Amino acid sequence: MKIRINFLILTAFLCLTLAACAGDGKEEFLPDAPVEELYNKGLEMMDEGSFKEAAKQFEEVERQHPYSQWSTRAELMGAYAQYEAMDYDAATTALDQFIQIHPGNANIAYAYYLRALCSYERIADVKRDQTYAMNSLKSLQEIISRFPDTTYAKDAVLKTALVNDHLAGGEMEVGRYYQKQKIYTAAVGRFRTVVEKYQTTSHAPEALHRLVECYLTLGITNEARTAAAVLGHNFPGSKWYEDSYKLLAEKNLTPKEDKESWIYKAWDAIF
Domain segments of the chain: what residues? Predict the structure, then answer.
């Protein structure tokens, strides 16, 4: 999942080099160290993979030279170094501050994107708490909304699909557990969430099949038939439809849509 934004480092280095060449050749020494020395040292540490040390170096740029042209850039580079060091909490805090203080900065879209990655990198497996997945989804959608024409938005669209698939997988995991425990009403609730919120994910066909199973067990045949009909219409070649069709056939039933069913209405709202 790691994404190295090397162009940001390269741009910073080139800008610094040009600025040095444009000077009068005299070194300007400040109380502790020249800003160029501090910043370049941070870049060297980044290249060496010493991300924690690099983050501290960029913090020194901010501390020693808060009003220099490199201070703002150092804030963002420091956050990126913390991200690479997998100190996502510190990176998120730094990025929140950057976004609040510098809303008009030329790299503001990147700041939003990097903040989203801090949650995205921490998405756990489907059996664990999904807080980071939800936070990541919110941040990715914000990028798509605020910066639709950027490369960050394009990547955010792809990652949004992956996060949605992950969240759907979490719902399916819990739903299957309830179904095994014969708590069918609770299981239906989880599978319904997948059908209503995540029907474009890879988990939708199974969710519809599980609804067929649960509704048949509960004796709610019209919903079971509707789930199977929707499944057959949208995923006719899937094994889930074959299994659903067999279950209905065993009870002398066939797939049939009920237009008053929540399943039909939920699916029709999208397709």
Answer: 1-13+30-122, 160-271
**pLDDT tens-place string over residues 152-206:** 999 999 999 999 999 999 999 999 999 999 999 999 999 999 999 999 999 999 9
Q: Which two three-digit tokens encode residue 107?
A: 């790299």
Q: Locate tokens 């797939």: which residue?
A: 255
Output the CATH code of domain 1-13+30-122.
1.25.40.10
Q: What are phi and psi of 106, to 5 degrees?
A: -60, -25
Q: Would you say 94 and 81 are in contact if contact means Cβ atoms under 8 Å apart?
A: no
Output the six-digit token pair for 253.
């039933």
C-alpha–C-alpha distance, residues 115 and 140, integer Å: 9
* Predicted structure pTM score: 0.78
Angstrom distance (rounded) from CA 140 to CA 122 = 14
Using alpha carbons only, give the angle 80, 86, 91 rounded to the nearest 5 degrees.
45
Measured between alpha carbons, how far is 171 from 160 in angstroms, rounded to an integer?
A: 17
- Both tokens of residue 145? 């909304």
Q: What is the DSSP letter of 161?
A: H
Q: Cα(21)–Cα(15) distance, rounded to whole angstroms? A: 10
CATH class of 160-271: mainly alpha
- The DSSP secondary-structure symbol of 24 reads -
d(CA 151, CA 142): 14
Classify residue 58 by burial, with Cβ atoms within 10 Å: 0-12, 13-18, 19+.
Answer: buried
Domain 160-271 in the same topology as domain 1-13+30-122: yes
